[in-house]
Fold this sequence. Notes:
Strand order of the largest sheet: 2-1-7-8-9
Number of strands: 11
Structural class: alpha/beta
CATH topology of the domain at 72-173 and 261-302: Rossmann fold
Order of helices and strands: HEHHEHEHHEHEHEHEHHEHEHEEHHH
Radius of gyration: 21 Å
Amino acid sequence: MLPYISEFRNAPACRAIAARMRELVRPGTEYNFMEFCGGHTHAIMRYGIRQSLPEGVRMSSGPGCPVCVTAQQDIDAAIALAGRGGVTIASFGDMMRVPGSRGSLLEANAQGADVRVVYSVLDALKLAADEPDRTVVFLAVGFETTAPGTAAAVLQAQAAGLSNFQVYCLHKLTPPAMRAIIEAGETRLSGILGPGHVTTVIGADAWSFLPSEYGIGCAIAGFEPADILLAVSELVRMASSREPEVRNMYPRAATAAGNRAAQATMARVFEPAVADWRGLGPVPDSGLKLRPEYEAFDAERHYCLERLAAREPTGCRCGEVLRGVLEPPGCPMFGSACTPDSPLGPCMVSSEGACAAYYEFGGEGV
């Protein structure tokens, strides 16, 4: 096992953390914590963490899968853009199979559209440099973790004079979505398991509004079993003592202030904008759009993309899963009409989707 990881997968240590946690939970008390990040959902399911939690402590999944929360209208617009002559869509693999109202990017590619899988925005830049006769549009999906890379690529394209490189910006910001979840009031939350990778960029202080405005604690966690158990233990401690705060349980990667260089790059290229989230609808200042000085790289502006009313997949309840009000097995389509081989919705497609995690690690009987 890699150095510095074995201690975070030490079974006796993890059992000891769980045992100490049980001592903090008073009989009859119930706590409902939400893990925002899809990576946490998969780790929690993979390592059987839910089964090790004390009675009365519940984890629910949130809108932490950027592919899953991409609105149906935006999927449809991307597919329509793929059908334009002279356009190459560069997309991460997870987006290829997400069902739109009329097919997917993968199906558009099979029908003659030029859609290519890339592993980073730099691959899209290289495509633009190698094929100057085509316009390469990078489908920019992701939270604050990937947005700095897109911003840096726009600056690089500008410096290199790559006029055939554009971005369809679907980046989203996590704190406004968390506000929307809490203020919707559909589920009463006792604390938030803070997203580790996002927090390395925005900083732990970005979550200070949770205790100050809503009276709930936030514990930033890494992605190994001990990381998550330690963070949940802190959430239990804060909830039981009624002393909410932000606790950084991922100090080897996250800091209070975050990555200032990444923040500055994002702020230079992007500005906040309203964004549509699957399951949440329009959320103010929860998206990013290119600033006017970079509009030459804005595919939405250049192609005047229309975001038409979309038809959600019949029977799909991904929206409720993303809001934390429904566990995947509660959807009647889960595991029968909707599987990874024939997904109805994005939560069964993405490697960070809650339905995919339950299907792979939990099965129908969870």
